[in-house]
Amino acid sequence: MQLVLGSASPRRKALLSELGFDFRVVTADADETFDATQSPEELVLSICRKKIAAIWPEIAPNERLICADTIVFLNGKVLGKPKSKADAIEMLQQLSGQTHEVYTGVVIKDTGAEHQLVDCTTVRFQELKLEDIIHYIEEHEAMDKAGSYGIQDWIGHIGIVEIRGSYTNVMGLPTQRLYPFLKQLM
């Protein structure tokens, strides 16, 4: 089976490539709205399934499609991708000095079956100065990331003081769980 990554994320592409798998990338616009009453686990899997549905018509019978979605969950509230710079600043101010969870759902589908996994990582930021938040938003790519930050980016280097769980999960793909899962399917 040939793998297909259904994602526009350069981080997911790099992580899957670093695992040693050959794959092609297909992207499609999928509705990423969600029901706020869903648990974080249900939410990420439901968005993955919307991505699968949008891309599935382009998948050949000998291909296996992988789609993922990541959210930041702070005090019972979902922080997705920011809609504006002001939204990004507000999100990072909310995360400042707080502990939050990052959930990533992965759905893998082929003509015979659908498999899923969800991973959760706990992350704690130190108190962030507004000038550092603004610098990050202005100088780095915060707009395409859940919670307005990338753990591998400058703000992660200066702001994150604790992480419990998978680092790559926070980047958007829990490689420690995905690798053996994919190897088993191959």
List keywords for this structure.
186 residues; alpha/beta; Maf protein; 7-stranded mixed sheet; 7 helices; 7 strands; elongated
Detailed description of the structure:
A hairpin with a 2-residue loop joins strand 3 and strand 4. The protein has one domain: Maf protein (Alpha-Beta Complex). The termini are close together. Strands 1, 2, 3, 4, 5, 6 and 7 form a seven-stranded mixed β-sheet that branches. The relative contact order is 0.18. The protein contains seven helices and seven strands, in the order E-H-E-H-E-E-H-E-E-H-H-E-H-H. The protein is α/β, with parallel strands linked by helices. It has helices at residues 10-18, 40-55, 85-95, 130-139, 154-159, 167-171, 175-185; strands at residues 2-5, 23-25, 63-74, 77-79, 99-109, 114-125, 160-164. The mean pLDDT is 94. Helix 3 crosses helix 4.
